[in-house]
Amino acid sequence: MSFHDVEIDALTGGPANLAQYRGKAVLVVNVASRCGLTPQYAALEKLHGQYAGRGFSVLGVPCNQFMGQEPGTAEEIAAFCSATYGVTFPMTEKTDVNGEHRHPLYAGLVGTADAEGHTGDIRWNFEKFLIAPDGTVVARFGPRVEPDAPEVVSAVEAALPA
Questions:
Q1: Catalytic residue among 6, 18, 27, 35
Q2: Can you say how many angstroms the Cα of residue 70 is from the centroid of all Cα atoms in its chain?
Q3: What is the DSSP string of the chain?
Q4: Assuming Cys at both sites, which of 52, 123, 131, 137 could form a disulfide with 26, CB separation 3.0 to 4.6 Å?
Q5: Closest-CA residue to 147 (of 75, 53, 71, 40)
Q6: How far apart, in whole angstroms, are the C-alpha atoms of residue 128 and residue 112?
Q7: Segment 104-124, tens digit of pLDDT
Q8: Where is the Thioredoxin domain (predicted)?
């Protein structure tokens, strides 16, 4: 199943409609509001703003599987992200990224290796997957790799539609 065909709801309800990203590059990130890595929201928003006009989007996927660091309701998550980090990029519903109830979105992502060769389970909040315009996963970055790290920026630039 292609990334574009996965069904997932938006944070504030209704379908997220991943088909709208056909022909665009997307950085999918499992996010959390109460994590030591939460300040990455600022760099994610900057990256989103910098490349949105060139066919790119960040897609935040809230997850509460790592020490309960995303306990809020959809409304609380949206308010926190907007007020604290000025987040304008789209967000999905809160989702399981690991385990028996892993969302199909992540079932299609975790087989991709990062630079260290890690595949499989998401290790922590803010793990990142870069989706090419054709829906294939072209890169995976560990949680501690900052969204504005040279390797992320160069991968995003290489994945932008022509």
A1: 35
A2: 15
A3: --GGG---BBTTSSB--GGGGTTSEEEEEEE-SSSTTTTHHHHHHHHHHHHGGGTEEEEEEE--TTTT---S-HHHHHHHHHHHH---S-BB-----SSTT--HHHHTTTTS--TT---SS--STT-EEEE-TTS-EEEEE-TTS-TTSHHHHHHHHHHS--
A4: 131
A5: 40
A6: 11
A7: 999 999 999 999 999 999 999
A8: 1-161
Residue matched to tokens 């809230």? 62
Q: Is 63 a catalytic residue?
A: no
DSSP 77: H
Domains of the chain: 3-159 (3.40.30.10)
Query: Percentages helix, strand, coil for the chain, rounded to the nearest 5?
Result: 30, 15, 55
| Whether pLDDT at 4 is above 90 | yes
Contacts of 11 (CB under 8 A, 6+ apart): 60, 62, 74, 77, 78, 90, 91, 92, 93, 94
**Per-residue pLDDT reduced to its tens digit, 15-72:** 999 999 999 999 999 999 999 999 999 999 999 999 999 999 999 999 999 999 999 9
Q: Quote the mean pLDDT of the chain.
A: 97
